[in-house]
Amino acid sequence: MKNLFLMSALILGGLVSVNAQSKSVKSTINSIETPKLSEKVGMTPIKKGNWMVGGAIGSLGYSFEGENFNINVMPKAGYFITDGIAIGLETGVGFQTVKGGDNDWNYSVMPFARYYFPEGASETGRFYGNGKIGISGTSLTAENTNETSFAFGVGLGYSHFVSRNVALEAEVGYNYSKSNAATATAQNGLGVAVGFQIFLGK
């Protein structure tokens, strides 16, 4: 009789423990927030006084002057001087392959201005235009020389907000540069960039 009572107590205790653990697991699962694909933010992230920090994590381009491709990483930071308009600085470093020639490294430092269009805007995203002007440089590994160039670029892109502070971006643009060497010719071409921005502020 004593053994039967002890066995019954153990079984009852086990059932209570299993039930408590099951409720705990369900509570934990319910508390996990489903990742969002978009967020309704309106004008909030791009209001006057806010900051944007991010950049293109990869940029692919093709030159009209020769059969060469390049890939770049371009961090940037900007400040909204008024609603929808930001100014800032973009830097970049990249690698270029040249058909029939030597590959080289390049860099750039370019102030920029960005304007978010009210046309076509939604609560989760909007189109923007970019303009930048500054200097770029190329390091020719085979010749062990460096060239500095005047450069500018324009682009059209779209920001899609996945949270109040983060937007994923895609942009197409045109870039131009010309070395300060006397015999240099202008280089220009199209590029496609994919990146992100983090918006800080109010």
Order of helices and strands: HEEEEEEEE
Strand order of the largest sheet: 1-2-3-4-5-6-7-8
- Count the helices. How many? 1
- State Rg: 27 Å
Shape: elongated
Strand fraction: over 45%
Question: Any low-confidence stretches, pLDDT <50, length ≥5?
Answer: none
Q: What is the number of strand segments?
A: 8
Can you give the mean pLDDT? 78
Structural class assignment: mainly beta
Q: How can the largest sheet be summarized?
A: 8 strands, antiparallel, barrel
Oligomeric state of shown chains? single chain
Q: Report, as a whole number of angstroms, the end-to-end distance.
A: 72 Å
Helix content: 10-25%
Task: Describe it.
With 202 residues, the chain is mostly beta strands. The protein has one helix at residues 2-31; strands at residues 51-63, 68-82, 85-98, 104-116, 125-140, 145-161, 166-179, 187-200. It is built from 1 helix and 8 strands, in the order H-E-E-E-E-E-E-E-E. It has an 8-stranded antiparallel beta barrel. The longest helix has 30 residues, at 2-31. The radius of gyration is 27 Å and the shape is elongated.
